[in-house]
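Researcher: Re-running this chain for the archive, since the previous output was lost when a drive failed. Same request as before.
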Amino acid sequence: MVHFLNFFLEDKSQLMKKLLLLLLLISFSLQAQYKVNGEMNPPGNYTWVILYKIEGARQVFVKSGKIEKGKFSFDMPANTKSGAYRVSYKTEGSGFADFLFNKEDVAFTFNPEQAEQTIQFSKSTENKLYQEYINTVSIQQYKTDSLQIAYLKNPVAKTASLYGTQLTKIESLQKQYLSKSKGKMVYHFIKATNRYNNPVIAKDPQSYLKSINEHFFDTIDFNNQTLYNSTFLVDRITDYVFYMNYSEDPTKQKELHDKAVKRVLEKAKTPTFKKDLIEFLITQFVNASNVDFADYLLNSFYIKLPVTIQNSEFVDSYLEKTVVSIGRIAPEITWSTNEKEYKLSTINDANNYVLVFWSTGCGHCLREIPQLYEFTKDMKNSKVIAFGMETDDKEWKNLTSKYSGWHHALGLKKWENPTARTYQIYSTPTYIVLDKNKKIIAKPETLDELKKIIKYLE
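Model: Regenerated structure tokens:
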């Protein structure tokens, strides 16, 4: 009986030791974390940094932190998802640095004014390997492209032979880095970054460009989740749509964009990614002042997506932001002069119109409006519509009497005036140029720029 009791106690003791060890391991795994350290050189005057995770064409907020003397740091818990991350330190413009995170410490330095070109990693096997790959292969790719261009200028057999040798070097390097990255997250990026080269040197520029265009996505798997949750696909799509398919002829450019977008969307099989991608492309075309094509994307592709994944807030925001974009018909404005009613949409006394939002309480306006009047008063093809943003009409009546021949519209409540808000007026004077159909054709930022446009139109 005693022997059995001792055995039980010993067994219980061993069980407790195992239990304590298990709890210790669990506690350690919960506390384990990785560090992401960034350093700006030069430090600049930056105080806050935001960490995002890239998911499809979106960036998802993770956490924020302080920048002190150009340095910042983030703790990444053990359960942090692997993937592509971004640190953003500017509220406007290009102010971010991207990196891969895969359960390891990451440290890097960069110039905040040129982050993408200057970032250098001192910690992170994944990022260091990818950067090494990019730097090594880009040199060889440059040599390959140079040989191709040299051949197009002067087709000699020696250049063609050197081109073949160069292709062998690139293929060898690609195999080496695929082998080095096997089992790592960066493997997916190295595989997809491999650029297509003609197996035989191209004989003319047309066949050279055509082959690159046709094979642009050969090594890129749009269903690869690692690529999907990074900027890689969006960056390549941007290159393809906006740079690989370019023409100075507007009609041809529209055809190229249409063909490029359709090809990209055919490859984006995941509905949510397709949605995010269309939203991204719409935004890019708006930024490029191509609202017509952005509208085409919205009406031909976006609204045909399943209703359950469409984002009504995005659509509303898009329509609101672009209501006075170049290419849009100007929103309606009504006014009365000498008891006669006028509408912007129906006036027909000029080939072009200058719509200027101004105020009697604006010093810049009081200097520029008289100059604009002197410049336009004798013009036959251009007419000015001056929209006064005022709190009352007293001073406005006195001043507008000096500018005969103009259309004068009064907008009370100044900045809160409904028309001013529709036109998104945030400063005065604001100039908008319309054609005879009231289509917005220019939004000059200065009076000098406006004068050049009017002079050209006259």
